[in-house]
Amino acid sequence: MPVYVKPNGLTYCVYYINGKRIWQPFGRGAQAKEQAETLDLEIKLKKKTSQIAAKGYKYVVTYGELVQLYLNAKSIELSNNTIDGILRAMKTYARPLIGTKPITQITMNDWWDIQKRMIKRDVSNRTINIYFTYLSGPLSWAINDNEGMLDVHPWRNRRRLKTVKYRIDLFILSEFKRILAAAEPHCSWALQVAYYTGVRPGPSELFNLQWKDVDWHQDRIGIHSTKSQAAPFRWQYVDRKFMQKLWHHSHHQRKHYPQCPYICSYKGKQIRSIKRSWAKAKERVGITRKIRLYDIRHFYITYALASGADIMELAERVGHTNSKMIVEVYAHLAKDLQKNKPLEIPSLYNT
Asked: Can you give the residue ranges of every domain in the chain?
């Protein structure tokens, strides 16, 4: 039992030094367990290394082991966003292909396979470049900070993909309503929440919204974001008609799934992704042109500006650290915004 969680929730890493069993505590929770597992990995690697070295061989870590060692060594230096990005890129794209592969056997072809996997999932060139930085970092660390672990970076000849200036092609409201009507109920509800809040439509914000953060008296929702270290929490004021929809949905969920804390859920469990449901809904109504989930956020910000939202206020509400992104990408239609009022966007509920 190298990692043990006691009934009281405390997590320990159990190992031996000179025949004596050591119980090293790490606290409670998922992070404590992850830290204990990382220490356990390091101990096992040292043991393997010494055993193999005694036989005249050199132990080579796998890419998955390298990433864990890298995160453990760099946890103080790396931002939470970077750590989350590395874990996301690793889990979705790298681990299935090279997670168990020794780092000395990794080649440029491995990166091409990872990149093909990203392209197949419609990942933008800009994001692919960012993910490359995340995934190549541990390999660079193995060369520069760990002499002898790796001699040459296998992806050193990779060139950045060309990126074009950010272009927003807004969907037509009638298209979005057709998709809503064709979508599965849990997907349709999540799309409505995204539409009226302007949150990032993924696990960092949309699927992280909880009922306890709804302020029913001031018609606003508290948003906890893992994407923004500068603004990890913000308030978003929403339309009164949507607040009524929100109240009815909360009443229904409390009745059928009282233990579920999430606003966007499926059968009482937190939603992780609606990309497939979104794609199926578009297919059902015959929409073939490229409309992404993130375009809902683009639509929100653009219409908020057009209706007179103050740029600084809008940046704060949608979770941008400053107004530069909004000025450069969306528009320069800034007007005064009456504070503590919902931003004006076309209603989904007009008859």
From this structure: 60-164, 177-330
